[in-house]
Write a structure and sequence with these properties.
Blueprint lengths: L1 H59 L7 E5 L2 E5 L1 H11 L4 E4 L5 E4 L1 H78 L3 H32 L8 E4 H12 L3 H4 L2 E4 L4 E5 L1 H17 L8 E8 L2 E7 L34 H11 L3 E6 L5 E8 L3 E3 L1
Parallel strand pairs: 6-8
Antiparallel strand pairs: 1-2, 3-4, 5-7, 7-12, 8-9, 9-11, 10-11
Length: about 375
């Protein structure tokens, strides 16, 4: 958990740094463009003033002799217009002089040049902002994908850790218990004790076999190797089969109540669906407080659906966990401290089997406590016997 939090904080800091870097780069580019434009406009105004000064000196000193009259700054002068125009307009590329019908000289082009510079700046600003936003959006998408992949990797790593811890416990415990029972029977070969130890060994071997069956079935479902062989099955027969698979202790059978609205059949793979119901019943027993086991298995028909419910008065499932418990290897709490046995595959298998039968897994809170879990079949997949 500490490593996960450290990686997430590091990823967040890197993301923040990159976003700020893009903002700084865009702002710097715009600031540089504005400064460049200011210098360009200042240089253009200086050229204008220089041209005004030069034109005044040229007219005063009669640099271009001639008899044509012109007016400059309200003062009349005589000069050679052709030579004046050719010389000044040839040397000044940004600014030009012109003469109106009243023989007034004027310099034009400054406002046009300043307007063109401002327009170019606006265009560049739009382009730079667009580049910054595009780069920022692309960066956010990449960071989002990296964040998502990081979370998936961390979750997968946590799931694998949970699975290894759980499976190690589920494998080690029955093997150790069976070994101890066999050693006890060998040390004291009394008929009654021998039989009791063999029964205990068999129970632990059955528990080990169930764990391996769950792992193998999960693998087959993931690789689409397992395909349902559907047939019409009476629900009562299916529930009886699931109870046999769950190997419910005789003293607990009296606390499991069957409530069938009517005699119904569902179109399903008998083995898969019995496994699903067996997982629901086993979970209800496992997560009920000791000496408080009370489970109700019932069918409900309505809204063109037939739902097989398994309800208990156990510890329940928190609202935020309801969507998570159907994920592979997911278990609430810490594997190091979790007392109840399990691999985190039970509800995952139930959900996968339900999907293979076009059915829906429903998880709700029971009243006054506990959980209600149902498998809802569509109208074409159930019928009256």
């Amino acid at each position: 958990m500490r490593v996960r939090n450290g990686l997430r904080i590091g990823m967040l800091l890197v993301s923040l740094y990159l976003v700020l870097a893009v903002i700084w780069w865009t702002w710097s580019l715009i600031a540089y463009g504005v400064r460049t434009v200011e210098l360009e406009k200042a240089w253009l105004r200086r050229d204008y003033q220089h041209m005004e000064t030069r034109l005044s000196l040229d007219l005063v000193t009669n640099r271009y002799p001639g008899q044509q009259e012109v007016i400059w700054n309200g003062i009349p002068y005589k000069c050679g217009l052709s030579q004046l125009f050719d010389d000044i307009n040839e040397n000044e590329h940004h600014l030009q002089i012109k003469i109106d019908h009243n023989q007034r000289l004027s310099i034009f082009g400054l406002e046009e040049q300043l307007s063109a510079i401002d327009k170019r700046l606006r265009t560049n600003k739009t382009k730079w902002l667009g580049e910054g936003l595009t780069l920022g959006a692309l960066l956010l998408v990449i960071l989002g994908l990296m964040w998502n992949n990081l979370n998936r990797i961390l979750k997968l790593n946590q799931q694998q850790t949970n699975f290894l811890l759980a499976v190690t416990h589920e494998l080690k415990t029955p093997i150790a218990a069976a070994k101890l029972a066999i050693e006890t029977a060998l040390r004291k070969p009394e008929p009654e004790l021998f039989e009791r130890m063999l029964t205990l060994s068999k129970q632990n071997m059955n528990r080990l076999a169930k764990t391996m069956d769950k792992v193998l079935l999960a693998t087959r479902l993931d690789t689409n190797i397992a395909q349902p062989s559907k047939e019409w099955i009476p629900i009562e027969e299916l529930i009886e089969e699931s109870l046999n698979q769950a190997q419910v202790a005789p003293e607990l059978m009296k606390n499991i109540h069957l409530d069938m609205e009517m005699r119904l059949e569902i179109l399903a793979d008998k083995s898969m669906m019995a496994t699903a119901l067996q997982n629901l019943i086993s979970n209800s027993i496992k997560y009920s407080e000791e000496n408080c086991v009370n489970i109700n298995v019932k069918t409900q028909v309505g809204n063109e659906r037939c739902t097989i419910w398994v309800k208990d008065n156990g510890i329940g499932i928190e609202g935020t966990e309801k969507k998570m418990v159907v994920k592979k290897f997911y278990r609430v709490g810490d594997e190091h401290t979790r007392a109840r046995q399990g691999t985190g595959l039970g509800l995952y298998l139930v959900n996968q089997i339900a999907k293979m039968h076009n059915a829906q897994l429903i998880i709700e809170d029971n009243t006054p406590s506990g959980t209600s879990i149902g498998i809802a079949f569509k109208h074409q997949d159930f019928r009256m016997e």
